[in-house]
Design brief:
With 365 residues, this protein is an alpha/beta fold. It has helices spanning 6-10, 28-35, 50-58, 71-81, 83-93, 113-120, 130-139, 144-159, 169-172, 184-194, 204-217, 243-248, 262-271, 282-285, 290-297, 316-336, 345-361; strands at 13-18, 96-102, 123-129, 162-167, 221-225, 253-257, 275-277. Strands 1-2-3-4-5-6-7 form a seven-stranded parallel β-sheet, sandwiched between helices. Strand 2, helix 6 and strand 3 (123-129) form a beta-alpha-beta unit. It is globular. Bound molecules: zinc ion. The site of zinc ion has 4 residues, from loops.
Length: 365
């Protein structure tokens, strides 16, 4: 394995899409449950996979074990050190400058953005999940006529402190959203349907309404695209399905994950001035193939349009793995493309590691 390009190894990253880490210790079963989007299965181990091999090779040394240590020994070492120490070690080792934290997914207690930033020694910023705001408005007892205004007011209030917004329309209705801004009458009619069973929003008109509200506030709007857990219908998550809506939006459109549609996402980033992409989640899930993934994503994506993200959730190891495999992939890319000796190589690498995110989210440097 070639050495990392020094300026890639040293460059602190902006992770523009991630979640909190568990506050509790993670035993072997928890490690298996959270390693991949699929979790455990009978008769085998999720660690026998590309991401499992990368985990076992890269993570044990951070806790003072030899590379390749068995998972049960690793879990024992984790328990001895405790969650606080393990969280801090991996998050510090990831080498992060800033984090944009999606606070909309917390199936059990996890760190707040401030706690995560403290553990990582990085600045933390919040990304507000649009559907959560709609579901909270519904739970507050608002009626259909008041729903649109209540959502708009809350998003405006939250925008003052948030770095951006995120849509999970992909998880609920797929990405084939219509381009038009829904009228007040359409929003009211859709809200009437939603409020009859308001716990989980899944209504095309309302996902689209939320996106337009976020767009009006001018902050970057993240879209889940491509790879996710078994709740997504992956064939409905091709970012190309967003093309008609992208044509109408004016705020930065941030396409998250994208795999296996990362080449399609690269096309959108090339042809639309306000579209940006990443390869989060896939970067660590593909393990040693992360270099191939990045090379494919960058076939069309302009270097000023690609961002780093881990999409890590729960396990601090995933922040570290995402960062380590991204550095490996970017280093390989710069070397293979003969960019390493070009005077601009360092500037280009810095854009993808941090500069693009700082510019688009207007983060302090
Ligand atoms: Zn995520």
């Amino acid at each position: 394995v070639a050495e990392l390009v020094p300026f890639v190894a040293e460059q602190r990253l902006v992770d523009h899409h991630c979640h909190g880490v568990l506050l509790r210790d993670a035993d072997e079963a928890t490690l298996e449950a959270l390693l991949t989007e699929g979790g455990a299965f009978p008769g085998g181990s999720p660690f026998d996979s590309a991401v499992g091999v990368a985990f076992r090779r890269l993570c044990p040394p951070v806790l003072g074990l030899f590379p390749g240590a068995p998972v049960n020994e690793y879990a024992e070492r984790r328990a001895v050190l405790g969650a606080g120490t393990v969280n801090r070690r991996f998050l510090r080792a990831a080498g992060l400058a800033s984090l944009c934290v999606d606070t909309g997914y917390a199936p059990e207690p996890i760190t707040s953005p401030a706690q995560l930033g403290e553990l990582a020694g990085a600045h933390a910023h919040e990304i507000v999940r649009l559907e959560v705001i709609a579901e909270q408005a519904a739970a507050s007892g608002v009626d259909a006529a008041g729903f649109g205004g209540a959502v708009q007011a809350e998003l405006t209030r939250r925008a003052a402190h948030a770095a951006g917004f995120k849509s999970i329309a992909a998880y609920r209705v797929g990405l084939e959203l219509r381009p038009e801004r829904p009228s007040a009458a359409e929003v009211e009619a859709a809200a009437g349907q939603f409020l009859r069973s308001p716990r989980r929003l899944a209504h095309e008109t309302l996902h689209r309404f939320l996106v337009w509200c976020a767009n009006d506030l001018g902050k970057p709007v993240q879209f889940h695209a491509g790879y996710g857990d078994r709740d997504v219908n992956l064939h409905q998550c091709n970012p190309l399905l967003l093309t008609p809506l992208i044509r109408e939006l004016t705020a930065p459109v941030m396409l998250l994950h994208n795999y296996p549609f990362h080449r399609e996402a690269g096309y959108l980033a090339q042809v639309f001035p306000h579209v940006y992409v990443d390869a989060g989640l896939a970067t660590h899930n593909l393990g040693f193939r992360a270099s191939a993934l990045l090379a494919e994503a960058l076939e069309l994506t302009p270097y000023g349009k690609f961002l780093y993200s881990s999409d890590a959730f729960g396990l601090p190891e995933l922040y570290y793995l995402g960062a380590a495999l991204f550095r490996r992939a970017l280093s390989d890319y710069l070397s293979q493309q003969s960019l390493r000796e070009v005077p601009d190589a360092e500037r280009i690498a810095e854009l993808m590691c941090a500069g693009n995110a700082r510019r688009i989210y207007q983060l302090p440097s």
